[in-house]
Structures are given as structure tokens and as C-alpha cells.
Amino acid sequence: MTMRPVVCFVMIILVLSSCRAKHGGGALAEEAPLPPAAGPSRNQPPPAGPPAGEEKQQPALARLPPRGRNGTVIGNPAEFLAELDSVLASDTEGLLVLVDKHHSLPEGYAPADLVPLVKNNAYGISRNDLSLRAPAEAALREMALAAQKDGVSLTASSTYRSYEYQVEVYGRNVRQSGKEVADRESAQPGKSQHQLGTVVDFGSITDEFAHTKAGRWLLAHAGEYGWSLSFPEGYEDVTGYRWECWHYRFIGKGAAAFQKKWFSDIQQFMLEFLSAWKSL
Ligand SMILES: [Zn+2]
Q: Strand pairing of 124-125 and 155-158?
């Protein structure tokens, strides 16, 4: 059956209209210019532009895995961006570095400001060879004194670990439990938060710690002092590690509050976002 020319013409017009709708104009838009957009009259000041950095927000979020995107709730972009600026500007100690199974520390990295943990009136130590970066030690002292006021004593059991020491720790875990089990709670050398010198494993380093006074107090209050539970319960698919109720990382008070407010209080979501943000 042959179509009459007028029918063909109508079909071509319909197809062209459909293309234009899908592709937002393109060449066709030049043939039929859009009417000028409604804008401010000459007497009105131009509207304030989007908050600085807003154009990076969506691309940074897009780099998060789906659970991270869902857990990042940015209701008020201007407020979020102002707080983001403040958190980044106040991170003069480099406390917000992303270190995980996919992000290694530079080879040979060792913090320059490690201080030994010695017997003191704020927190306990379970061995004599522990050390932390100076800002983390000061923050641990402050938090432990606050815990004391609530009748809780905190004991540091594992802190800074050098690359070489992590080789030993990881190797021992693999020998004892096999690689699959070891990888759920022991980082490979160069990928451990402990190498940052800003992490403390508290108390018994077992699941039972969660039910102790210290474990419960930390879960409720650590964030107020800038400490963050790195591997919370139910987030192994996000962090790469099973729940570790004893492992807290010092990120600073501003970042801890920022994480709680916008990132469902999940450290990994925030650090991944900051890493993406800095790379854009
Ligand atoms: Zn740990």
C-alpha cells in the first residue's frame, strides 16, 4: 500500500516533534527560537546565584554508592555548603583522610606528631607501647575526663600501628582465621585507619565491649568530643568491615556534628563524599 504524500508529510512532522521533545531542541531550536526567558526587569537587582560550590554537590553525591547517596540527606543546600566549607577549612590537622579497602595511605606514611600514651589521670592504657597523634591524644583526654564525670572509665587498648606492625597483625589474623574471616575485621597493611594515629580500640576489643558501661557511653557521647564509630553495626557492605563496637576514630567535633546532621552519622558516607568533593 502506498501512502499519500500529505500523510507522509504529517508523519515526518510528528517524528520531528518527538525528537525535539527528547533532545531538548538541538538544531531544530535554531529554526524556531524559544521565546526569551522571563528575567528581572531593568530596575531589579539580579537574583543571587546558587550557593558557591552547589554545582559540585550532585557530581560528588553521584560518586557515592547507592546506600551512601540514600544516607546523605541534603535538605538545605546553602546550609549544607556553609557547614561543609567550615568543616574543610577547620581541618588543619588532616583528620578527614579516607582510608579504606579501596583507598590506601601513601607508601611509608607515618604521622609526624605521635606522642606516647603514658599513665595519666584521664584514661587507662592496657600496654606501654601505645601512641597517638597529638590532637587525638588531647581529644582522648578530654573525652575520658568527661566520661569520668559520668562514672565511666575508658581504656585504650590499641592505637597507632605502623605499616610494618600492621603487616604482623594482618598476617597473624590470616594465619589464625583464614583470609576471608581476617578481611572482615583486619585491614591489609597501608589500608588501616590505625596507621593514621587517630584511632583508638577501647576495652576488650570484643563484641562484649558494646554491653559495658564504657561501650554504651562511647556510643552515646563520643561524637560530642569529635570521635566517630568507624564500623557500625549493619554497615559491612558500606565500610568493608564487620561491626567493631570498640574502634573509634578522632575526626574533630565539627566533622562529627556534620556527619551526624547530613550523613546519617555514618563516617564512611561523609569521608567518601569529602573525598569525591575534593577530587572535583
Ligand atoms: Zn581498630
A: parallel
The CATH number of domain 107-250 is 3.20.110.10: no
Query: In sequence order, what E strands does the chain have?
Result: 114-116, 124-125, 131-133, 155-158, 199-202, 227-229, 247-250
- Tell me, rounded to whole angstroms, the distance of Cα 173 from its chain centroid: 27
Helix axes 54-62 and 267-279, enclosed angle (nearest 10):
120
Q: What pLDDT, in 10s, does the model give residues 152-199? A: 999 999 999 999 999 999 999 999 999 999 999 899 999 999 999 999
228 beta partners: 249
What pLDDT score was predicted for residue 261?
96
Strand order in the sheet with 155-158: 124-125, 155-158, 199-202, 247-250, 227-229
CB-side exposure of 255: number of CA atoms within 13 Å? Answer: 26
Phi and psi of 179, rounded to 5°?
Answer: -65, -40
Ligand 1 mean position, distance from CA 135 (Å): 18
Q: Where are the domains of the chain?
A: 58-96+264-280, 107-250
Q: pLDDT digits over 90-132, tens only?
A: 999 999 999 999 999 988 899 999 999 999 999 999 999 999 9
Q: Which residues surround ligand 1, an ion (CB under 5 A)?
A: 201, 247
What is the whole-number distance in angstroms between the Cα of residue 88 and the centre of ligand 1? 25
The CA dihedral of 88, 91, 94, 95, to the nearest 10 degrees, is -100
Residue 191 DSSP one-character state = -
